[in-house]
Amino acid sequence: MTNKVERMQFKYQYIYDKLRNLLENGRYHAGDRLPTEVELASRFNVSRPTVTRALNALQEEGIIVRKTGSGSFVNNLHSYKNKFNNRIFGLLVPGLGKGEIFEPICTQIAANAEKNQCSLLWSGSEIRTTEAAKSLVDVTQRYIAHHIAGVFFEPLELSPSFDQINRKIISMFQDAGIPIVLIDSDYLPFPERSNLDLVGIDNFRAAYMATRHYLRHGEKRIDFLARPYSAYTISIRLRGYRTALIDYGIIPQAEWIHLVNPEELEYITSRFDHPEAPPFNMICANDETASALLGACESVGISVPEHLRIVGFDDVHYAQMLRVPLTTIHQSVQQIGNLALETLLWRIEHPDAPARTINAETRMIIRESCGMTGKAEISPFYS
């Protein structure tokens, strides 16, 4: 019995998909009459009740109108799309599984979407190769085929080849007339700004705060570590870092900035394994990088925070559970998720409005890794 039901459901879905594709590809136009149930049953070699179920589903979604004694007619497809697609959004987030920050953001988007009677299509995983990144183009095509009402997109990072893929994905959605809300980062390098809404944090201010934390304790040298080809948000954080140093009368030096993977132990040892020197002060581009640096230091015998002090970004859930609890910039993933959905809903209602940048709240969380818990701050040179 179960297999029979499953076969019926498959046939109904197949007919539904075929008819919907014909309608959306222009085979039938508004006001056109569809073939009769008998004709469709014969064409697809199924029973008439199976055809009836598919037609009823199309009618419930506003795609067709069924008139007793007259047949089934194509509804106004523009009205259908506005009505139906406003309930389906796409999530295209390659950062899922990376850094522990995007999964709770997406979970919050999903929770709010359900409250607003919207549905979500999910796609996202950690992308490390260009070939894997190209699979996101296929996902984009599927989203477009589903006529989603809008999409949340986190641009790819950590490879120079990803820029072209980001641009292709954006172009595909824009050509299809699908609104896009960027999560965390623009896909264009600072100081360029795309014409898309962006939800994230004020990265300049957050980095300024992290740098100022060291400066207010009298430190004169502060280093910055980021992985090569990181998201464009990192370049903005670098500007906040540099500005804070300059405001305190310190000229940042090129050798203080490290664009390297923290797992490169030879580099870490050569730069920071100097027990006789004063502790180094490090700002890491995010908590994932900070966590990897902590692991590298432990493996080569560099003591944190005695020889190397570390501050991160994000305040991921494991930040306080590391061997040395991590000082970090907290960003509210719940608020980012809420703002992202609100922004997409707003954009659908205001398609011609200028692009907006919406920032969630941030604050600094002081833990042991910075080596300054309980230490009094000195008077700042600049506030």
UniProtKB/TrEMBL annotation:
Keywords: DNA-binding, Repressor, Transcription, Transcription regulation. GO terms for molecular function: DNA-binding transcription factor activity; transcription cis-regulatory region binding. It comes from Sediminispirochaeta smaragdinae (strain DSM 11293 / JCM 15392 / SEBR 4228). CDD domains: PBP1_LacI_sugar_binding-like (cd06267), WHTH_GntR (cd07377). The keyword Transcription applies. The lineage of its organism: Bacteria, Pseudomonadati, Spirochaetota, Spirochaetia, Spirochaetales. SUPFAM superfamilies: Periplasmic binding protein-like I, Winged helix' DNA-binding domain. Residues 9-77 form the HTH gntR-type domain. InterPro entries: LacI/GalR-like_sensor, Peripla_BP_I, Tscrpt_reg_HTH_GntR, WH-like_DNA-bd_sf, WH_DNA-bd_sf. This is Transcriptional regulator, GntR family with LacI sensor. PROSITE patterns: HTH_GNTR.
